[in-house]
């Protein structure tokens, strides 16, 4: 298989040095994997061009007492303490959440019912699973918050954190937040820490004309991934929707974009400075990884519907991230 043939959303690559194999995780697609149900599957490749058919490594079915069986979005796999940990987002539409107070007058007409959503952690001794949920009773972030796309970050002291997106459906202006994890990654300790909000990126509303309120939703936060640069800064890749206005009725539309932010202090708490988008064209939820020959790569999905993986060779100039070239030779173009 090659990337144009591989349905995938929210791609995450683990380059396994031991086997010299790239593992590409995504939500289970039963028509491709041959396995029914909500879960995670993985493609494998030695060269990023040719991929083996996917293997299912996690299913919500069979996880005794699991609080949700829908979703399994944005799977990531991280090595920690000699084992492998899967982070993936589940949701349960039958467990409504209370609405949080709207932050401004423009939020009121757009208030949307919310339900339980958040990232779980599951563990395995193998990159190929099977992964078992550590706490099937609830998501890891506070369960009264509607969150998604949790990722692992380990600070310089060795403290593990989960960084996640707090849904705009609950907050109107989506936020990035972080919470400390216990050593086994199963629970949180302490309160969530606010990092930044989606509207902090000044370009999100550049195309909205004068007279139209910039507070109009959505201000979406999506797909965080942390990366430490050689100069000690901390980068966060994240995605959102770039807004514009179609017509004279003030209707807001926009496109999915891949962007990033920089914490020049190197601290997770920031302050975070927003950069302009790296890739537009309905592209996003990217992550950085290194090839076995040392090249820095970014993978993301495009378009949002019927998504496929796209690969970019990247370069760091200090803590500024730049695209060197699109690797159409690997991802098939398009």
TrEMBL record:
Pathway: Glycan metabolism; L-arabinan degradation. One of its GO terms (biological process) is carbohydrate metabolic process. The keyword Transmembrane does not apply. InterPro entries: GH43_arabinanases, Glyco_hydro_43, Glyco_hydro_beta-prop_sf. Keywords: Glycosidase, Hydrolase. The keyword Hydrolase applies. It holds the Pfam family Glyco_hydro_43. CDD domains: GH43_Bt1873-like. It comes from the Bacteria. One of its GO terms (molecular function) is hydrolase activity, hydrolyzing O-glycosyl compounds. Belongs to the glycosyl hydrolase 43 family. This is Glycoside hydrolase.
